[in-house]
Amino acid sequence: MIKRFLLVLLSSLILIMPIFLLVPSTAASSLPFNPNDLIDDITFNNTTTMSAAYIDSWLNNNFSNSCISSNANSNGNAGFTTPSPDGWDSATNQYNFGSNVTAGQAIYNVSQEYNVNPQVILTTLQKEQGVVSGGAGCYYNTPNPAAPFSSTPSPSNTFTCDIGGQSTICTYACTTGGGCMPIAMSYACPGYCSAGAEGFSLQLEEGAWLLRFGQERSQGILSGYTGYDPGDENYNYTGPMTQGYRQSIAGGPSIYYDGTYTTQDGVDVTIDNGATASLYYYTPFESGNLLFDNLFQGTISNGDLGFGSVYSNNTFTPHPNGTLISNGSQIFLINNQQRDWITNPYVFESYGYQWNTVVPATIGDTELPAGPNIDTLAPGTIFYSTGTPVYVMNYIGGVLEKQQISLSSYNGLGYKWSQVMYVPPDFVPSATAPNIYFSDQHPPGTLVADYSTGKVYLLTQTSKDWVLGPDAFNTNSYSWSNVLPATAIDLSLPDGSDINLANGTMLLASGNIYLVNYDSNNNIYIQPVGPWDCFSNRLHYGLVNLYSISPASLPSTVGPIFTCSD
């Protein structure tokens, strides 16, 4: 039950005491520190950054006094080895360990097991205790730092060791397998190193499991991820949550979280992704995570680890208005330089959006302010749920509500059953009109066709807006199967604004890429996009995001180039 014991202990520790921190590095990070986005999920979960042999070589070549180097050094390290961490055994409810291996092999093993970047594990080791550099001292059970792991301490094997300048009594278990290195709990030993949760290899297992657990649970994911063990869903999570409806434990209530979190050093942050939530769960202090970022990004020559950016091929440029982005657990629409959260998949689909066009969020996206939630079905959506009549989303007194539609209106307005969307009961909008929809006019949000002129209109509350041709129709995510014959009352509405190419559309014309944009007066223009690295690798667009158009159909006004900043 080691894993279970640790989680309970850690959950209490992070609420009552600060994790031991080294003096923060003064080296400048390669990118400015963003407390809302400490590291992106792609980097956090990249297990291909270092092989076992490369970790050992990196330690030996760059940190001559490392506590975990496979080379002997003047810090008391006779050539570090530790029992091989071989994963959790659900049948016996404990971790398995094999014969002694190097630290590089042990770190690599747990990184693969829990899908955590080995660089994240190394940075955590350094942040908590200076284990990588040996700068805080190395504490071994002499004469054998490679003693096999034992979860049973022997009181006769206690001895005095110097930790942080203080003489402290440590038990045998606290020094087994390479010293007092409780990376998942605290620096101090004893007291915070329990007899059942000590030793380097075990702490690697516990620490990596905790990092992964925090990342997944903060997004409301209870099971099925890499590193999940049966029963993990039954541990109550008390850390920061990403924005959305989340369960902290299996069977618990689904509660809405807005992503806000106050660190234990009093800083208010907004949790932008699961990896950021995990680091705050592990170390609930902004100062500790500033140290993490500095160590990860700073150069080895300045005493840091030199792993580069905590962001994966990213940019501070936000995606343009009209783009659908994902932070790994949520989908947003960039609108008016804000992030509008689309709260559930049925709302997403009601607007005609396509899942394959969603792109990963950039750093710039995460720094945009939160806009209003898009949390109800699109105007004009016709739907039903379990045991309900057919509803249509309509504006009642300017408020979007569901309204039961009469059979006569359903038939008279030309609806087809293929247009009627099924929405599960938990996602049905609560606001309901008091009366039934009886009308010869389609509700706002409906696409209608005037077959006498060949024009298609989008109806609004006060007008009919002409969709200017197939390119405008397609780029606005409209579906031809949803177009209904216009009624006389529909056509009697005054003409409104014309609907042109959708804002944020990436156009492909004669091998060149252009972005559709609008100025403050709603005049359309295009911007050349480049280079390809910006478009593909940093903004994460693909061919599916390109809409092919003839050069003759391009808007005539051309603005400045749209490209990526640092």
Q: Which keywords apply here?
A:
four-stranded mixed sheet, 23% helix, alpha+beta, single chain, 566 residues
What does it look like?
- The chain has 566 residues and is α+β, with helices and mostly antiparallel strands.
- Among the domains are: 2-136 and 199-302, no CATH class; 382-492, no CATH class.
- 23% of the residues lie in helices and 18% in strands.
- It has helices at residues 2-16, 41-44, 52-62, 103-114, 118-129, 172-175, 200-217, 274-282, 286-297, 345-350, 363-366, 407-412, 470-475, 488-492, 532-538; strands at residues 82-89, 94-101, 159-163, 166-170, 244-246, 255-257, 260-262, 268-270, 324-326, 331-335, 338-342, 359-360, 382-384, 391-396, 399-404, 421-422, 447-450, 455-459, 464-467, 484-485, 506-509, 512-518, 524-528, 546-548.
- A 4-stranded mixed beta sheet has the order 11-10-9-12.
- A hairpin with a 4-residue loop joins strand 18 (455-459) and strand 19 (464-467).
- Helix 3 packs across helix 4, helix 4 (103-114) runs parallel beside helix 7 (200-217) and helix 7 crosses helix 8 (274-282).
- It is elongated, with a radius of gyration of 29 Å.
- Mean pLDDT is 83; it is low at 4-30 and 141-195.
Write the layout of secondary structure elements.
Layout: H1 2-16, H2 41-44, H3 52-62, E1 82-89, E2 94-101, H4 103-114, H5 118-129, E3 159-163, E4 166-170, H6 172-175, H7 200-217, E5 244-246, E6 255-257, E7 260-262, E8 268-270, H8 274-282, H9 286-297, E9 324-326, E10 331-335, E11 338-342, H10 345-350, E12 359-360, H11 363-366, E13 382-384, E14 391-396, E15 399-404, H12 407-412, E16 421-422, E17 447-450, E18 455-459, E19 464-467, H13 470-475, E20 484-485, H14 488-492, E21 506-509, E22 512-518, E23 524-528, H15 532-538, E24 546-548
Parallel strand pairs: 9-12, 13-16, 17-20, 21-24
Antiparallel strand pairs: 1-2, 3-4, 5-6, 7-8, 9-10, 10-11, 13-14, 14-15, 17-18, 18-19, 21-22, 22-23
Helix pairs in contact: 3-4, 4-7, 5-9, 7-8
